[in-house]
Amino acid sequence: MTSVTAPAELREALVTRLTDSGHLRTPEVIAAFRGVQRHQFLPDVDLQAAYAEDAVPTKHNETGEMISCISAPSIVATQLEQLGAESGHKILEAGAATGYNARLLAELVAPQGHVWTVDVDQDLVDNAQKNLAQARATNVTVVLGDGAAGLPKHAPFDRIQFTVGTSDIPVKILDQLAPGGRLIIPMRIRGSISRSFAFEREGQTYKTVSSEMMTFVPLRKGVCNDIRTMVDMTGEGDVLLETYSEQNVDAEAIRTVLDQPPAEIYTDVKFRKNDPYQWLYLYLAYVLPNGLSRMPGSRPGLTPNFGWGSMAALGDDTLAYLTKREGEDEHGMFWQLGVIGHGPRAADLADQVATEIRAWDQGWGNNTPEPGFRMAVGDGRDQLTPADPRFVIDKAYSRIVVDWPRKG
Hints:
Elements: H1 7-20, H2 27-35, H3 47-50, E1 56-60, E2 66-70, H4 73-83, E3 90-94, H5 100-109, E4 114-119, H6 122-134, E5 140-144, E6 157-162, H7 171-174, E7 177-190, E8 193-202, E9 205-213, E10 228-232, E11 240-244, H8 251-254, E12 262-271, H9 278-287, E13 293-296, E14 309-314, E15 319-329, E16 332-342, H10 346-363, E17 372-377, E18 392-394, E19 398-403
Parallel strand pairs: 3-4, 3-6, 4-5, 6-7
Antiparallel strand pairs: 1-2, 7-8, 8-9, 9-17, 10-11, 12-16, 13-14, 14-15, 15-16, 17-19, 18-19
Helix pairs in contact: 1-2, 2-5, 9-10
């Protein structure tokens, strides 16, 4: 078979993939994906890699951590479908990066609409301006600044889109949203668990019209700066542990725990092919004090849930990560969920996580309607009361409540 190498063919193949997978749905977004040349925004990247289903790093910090990238095509498509941009709209984008997303937005709001895209580093701004000029985007303005502070002099905006991850709602942004407008913001719930929320105003509060599980490079250098620390675990292998400022974790103590004996517990909860993990992760993010953290990497004796690694619950000096083992019954192959703890309280934490996994399976599982979310800031927070008191998280500026019907 002859490999596809022409940009137009690669772009058409990308559109076909994303349409078949359901990431692209509306004719306007499909047309934008078909018309905008992604590879022009990645001039130093192999053509095939530019159209692959991967994020492409474009900037790293002094420690080698990625701090800017062009997101995977499916992520870009999902957020644009959430956004619902229309011709004539004024749009603010926080996170210019390469300018690719802004160019897609420019297509969606043309001919009368305009896009302002903001980034915190001059080199990123300069690069985005160059790429957008080459792509003949005449209705995009690139600005150096803090996207979380917005651009009050150009407000109000019909749509505001964050293509960087946040830990909270930047309150000033809400004042820049036009009546009937929509905010798209990837926000961490607790630990590593993040969703891209599409919020619309409802009185003094906000409700989601859509939410999708996804993770972005954290916001930095400004309001709602999201501080992430990657703990390099000791011992053999290359295991890292992702931690955030709101988690009560002793990084020096926890980095050695994988060298300590494991405490293993298996539940009776079964996952089958194509069962999503996002709802279990969401539940655990709300009910566990430190939520869940990504623990990528491998080492001898570690049996993570996936090839990349696993999600882990954290105590201050103990962790418990998700694992699984294969089985087969009258319905076919399944994976039985388990928990493996390490540290001074390994057995207790593993048992706590296993208990919550069972509770999720009995009360919610993967066969209940998708949950909705409500959000408020300031005095509006008092208006948000969940049916289940565990399904509320109070952040510095906002309260996030999940409305999640139980089975039956």
